[in-house]
Amino acid sequence: VSRHTDLTSVRASVPDEARQRAGKEAPARRRGRQGEPLRVIHDLSAALIAASNPEDIYNEALAGLARALGADRAAVLLYGQDDVMRFVAWRGLSEGYRSAVEGHSPWARDERAPEPIFIRDVEEDDGLAAFREVIGAEGIRALGFLPLVYRGRLLGKLMIYCDAPRRFTDEDAQVAKIIANQVVFAVMQRRDTNHERAERQLVLLSEASRRLMEAQLDARAVLDTVGRLVTERLARACLLVVHEDRETERPSLTVGHDRDGAAADQLRAELARDGAVARVVARGEAVISAEVLAVPLRRHGQVIGVCACRGPLGAAFEESDQLLLQELADRAALALDNAQLYRRSEGAVKLRDDFLSVAGHELRTPLTALKLQITALERVGGDPVSLQRLQAARRQVARLAALTDELLDVARITTGRLTLELEPVDVTTVTLEVAGRLAEALTSSGSALTIEAPTPVVGRWDKMHLDQVMTNLLTNAIKYGCGRPIQIVVEARGAMARLTVRDQGIGIESDMQGKIFERFERAVSPRSYGGLGLGLWIVSQIVSALGGSIRVDSVPAQGAAFTVDLPLAPPDGAALAAQ
Amino acid sequence: VTARFRILLVEDDRDVRESMRDLLTDSGYDVVCAGEGRQALERLQDGPLPDLILLDLMMVGMDGYQFLVEMRRDPEQAVLPVLVLTAQGPGAISAETLGVAGVMRKPFEFDELVAEIRRFS
């Protein structure tokens, strides 16, 4: 018996970035290089086309979900003939868990337009209260339900699971929908071959699925694919019209294909004359005559356009032709949906990257001009007071530059655009470089620095970000070190590198020790110590992106020791999907 | 008399460009300026070729990326060393991906720039 679990309260959990509470949740998984999920979608299309049996389709889907959405585990569930949704493929789920949740679904069997549902944190979500224990025991903290829908019918769902709380973005939701649609394509293609239809239609539909999967990220290519197929196999001319939709920003698009040259134009004129297009759109019904056949393009129950053809390749159009054309139109509509989702995610990614890039450029350019002007003034010379003031100006510019970098880093980390470029790096060399750069600050603070780094410690890391970790830790030690000695130790410990930065300064109260790695948290009054309170947060984000960990040991008034442990080789995919 | 080391400075921000030009000239370099890529290509066409090109990337008009593409069409110009000076953050931009001799991030200290230029002179 199918159980429809009431998850109405869960529905409020669809992505809504505005409602997220800053700092309470782990940031969205890093996607590594820009556009990574979109590339995964492309790869997935190719893999699904090549999949020769259902198991391959499911496994490719699982791999695609893990890569595009950074899921730790995933599953595919489909309705069986008994109307129960069952696991058909999964990754990393215990048998106990599967049997406990199998058959439950957030949507009713006959729900018309089920939407994806995301749960940021199982522990904070009341909708899943009944399953909290089971889910918790499985080590799952965040999850996503992605419906598999074909022609308004729920076929099953894809599930993604994360081991830590996870903020799902609108982009995640769009990528998830595209993947679900692709799986539907692949599954339907296989199902159709089991139907008892005419050979010609089977071949056509199977061919359509394959070609649409290839074309589906571009609306015009989708319509072209259908037009070409229809004129190859079904009719002399084919005309596809998609109407503009302001709400979804879908532009109107008309594509004509014909075998004889002018037939598509003739069809266009005919359809306009007798209002067939308007009729199809208004009523969502097909129009059929011996010479002309027109079916609606439907998406989410709405008519978004028309697929019409003229001049049957057989004697006259028959009802089976109409069914076939409708099937084609439905697949085309699904592919159009994908094209639109794809365009939007691509736009969102680009917009964000453009903004960060432009903001960085716009903030740093005046700083460059200021620095150079100060240098020019210094070279002109002048009285000691003027030179002193110029030095003060120089210090302030340096401070602004550091704050700019810090803010841009935060923006990059929170939008998942922290890019790691892994290469062999010697952390000892990095440490010495950082110490050299901060020599002046050390001198003026009065703290003596000793570095204990007996051997090179080489790992696969991102040099610039490792530099930043060391810079932030040493800057903190200087800032809070009360002018007393500072010690840095770099050592290799098996497959890990350990960096320790120890000062003998003001230290950190024990109740603050857990908080200092959070954003905007600071253990000291902003009046006595400047800064944004972001340095340690950035450090901890970089360290965890590299698969490592950081901790602090401190006794107030006696100093603090920050210890960073980094694997010499970050886990697979760290550069692509590190937390 | 040995010819002075000649630098083509391509930078669209006037304050940055002029202060760099003055400081570099005072440091003994021969500096020719351009405010964007197309002007820089003209400078390359017109005068003797520089020993080094200092190139900004994000510029109004022809940007630095396009300038690199255009400049490389000319075999004589293609071999000129380019030091990119960019205000863009770390990440996509590296000397390897751009195929240039070096990348410096803004804001830099003038002394750092001179040290870098010395690598080419």
- The strand line-up of the biggest sheet of chain B is 2-1-3-4-5
- Looking at how many chains there are and whether they match, the oligomeric state comes to heterodimer
The span between the termini of chain B is: 16 Å
Number of helical segments with 4 or more residues of chain A: 16
Mean pLDDT of chain B: 90
Give the overall average pLDDT of chain A. 80
Strand order of the largest sheet of chain A: 3-2-7-6-5
Weakly predicted, low-confidence segments of chain A: 1-35, 573-579
Count every helix of chain B, treating DSSP H or I runs of 4 or more residues as helices: 6
Distance between the termini of chain A: 39 Å
Structural class label of chain B: alpha/beta
Q: Share of helix among residues of chain A?
A: 40-55%
Q: Whole-number radius of gyration of chain A?
A: 30 Å
Strand content of chain B: 15-25%
Please outline the major beta sheet of chain B.
Answer: 5 strands, parallel
Beta-strand residue percentage of chain A: 15-25%
User: Largest interface: which pair?
Assistant: A-B, 29 and 22 residues
Comma- or semicolon-separated keywords:
heterodimer, A: 579 residues, alpha+beta, 16 helices, 19 strands, 45% helix, elongated, disordered N terminus, disordered C terminus, B: 121 residues, alpha/beta, five-stranded parallel β-sheet, globular
